Amino acid sequence: MTRQRALIAQILRTAGRHLTAEEIFQLARRSMPSIAVGTVYRNLRLMAEDGELRRIEAAGGPVRYDANLSPHGHLVCRVCGKLDDMAVPCLASYLSRCTGEDAPRYDLSVDWVCPACRRAREGGGERDSVDQLHNGSQTYNID
Amino acid sequence: MTRQRALIAQILRTAGRHLTAEEIFQLARRSMPSIAVGTVYRNLRLMAEDGELRRIEAAGGPVRYDANLSPHGHLVCRVCGKLDDMAVPCLASYLSRCTGEDAPRYDLSVDWVCPACRRAREGGGERDSVDQLHNGSQTYNID
DNA sequence: TTAAAATTAGGAATAATTCTTAAAAATATA
DNA sequence: TATATTTTTAAGAATTATTCCTAATTTTAA
Questions:
Q1: How is residue B23 annotated by DSSP?
Q2: Of B98, B59, B55, which Cα lies nearest the Cα of B77?
Q3: Best interface-test mutation with B: which of A44, A64, A97, A99 has the largest number of B CBs within 10 A?
Q4: For residue A90, which of A39, B4, B17, B90 sits 20 to 30 Å off, Cα-Cα?
């Protein structure tokens, strides 16, 4: 565990959102100006291999990294590109049965139009059902 | 619809597996030696935007393209890299409820060790339960 | 405290993809 | 059908994301 790796891990834990390698590099050099971009990539790769963080390959854009290790999917707005977390109950246990993995790692990204962009598109006014669904909790029965 | 685009669509439909842009380019130039790599990329992007084909971003490797439009996930072997299709019943309808999309497009890739690599690793011998799942209707070998 | 092993900074190299431009092809119009 | 307009193409330069290389530095082990 080097100072560089500790810094990268801390940035990701406190970010509160999904950062790209480049964003992590820019944040890291604020407190450690000598850090190299290759160091950021190498440590991100190693930590992902060790399961200390998750790689997420969201549609189109560059790879992002997530310190939240609990299984979840991602919603990608096709209008503004915003990335949201999404609970997918039961998916992990279904995949565990299919693959024989104890804790299967998956990457799920779903294309949608986020509530803000949907309202802008539809001219505002009516509240649509998407907001309620997104803020509520769904159950996913796969059996 | 140009000759180039028709060729690309036909290659993907008859491939029987998930091709990268580079593989599609190599196959295309056999019957149309003048085709340019940029043309392949542009048409793949346009066709994906139109929903005529699916982009799949499997862990690590380059983007692959899939003419199979029915919703399904992908299994990626972490040892040999082989890519298999995988049925995920109910996921599409769950995502439809969450996102408000009629036919939500998703990209699901799951990290596992395929049956062949698992046997090689464990020294062969015992049939494991993964094989049964794999040979059943859950998954089919595509790559 | 010193030796060995691992990691770093810095930059070159690579891979995948997009962009640019003039020419060719496709489509619309007369 | 001939011609004008629009779209798409080929070719390759440019860009973006990422990995690789090397000597120097840092970390770990003895």
A1: H
A2: B59
A3: A99
A4: B17
Q: Does B83 touch chain A (CB under 8 A)?
A: no
| DSSP assignment of A10-69 | HHHHHHSSPEEHHHHHHHHHHH-TT--HHHHHHHHHHHHHTTSSEEE--SSS--EEE---
Q: Measuring from the CA of residue B37 to each C1', which nucleotide is nearest? A: D10
CA angle A90, B57, B114 (to 5 degrees): 65
What are the structural domains, with CATH classification, of chain B?
Answer: 3-65 (1.10.10.10), 70-141 (3.30.1490.190)
Give Cβ neighbours of residue B106 (< 8 Å, ≥ 6 apart): A73, A108, A109, A110, A111, B71, B91, B92, B95
pLDDT tens digits along B17-37: 899 999 999 999 999 999 999
HSE-CB for B32 with a 13 A CA cutoff = 17
**How many CB pairs below 8 Å do chains A and B form together?**
97
Model confidence, pTM: 0.84
Specify the pLDDT at position A143: 28
Select from A76, A77, A64, A87 the least CA-distant residue to A17: A64
Task: Scan for tokens 């140009």, then name that residue.
Answer: B2
- pLDDT digits 0-9 by tens, B107-140: 999 999 999 999 988 775 444 444 333 332 234 3
**The two structure tokens encoding residue B60:** 């690590």
Residue B75 to residue A99, Cβ atoms within 8 A: yes
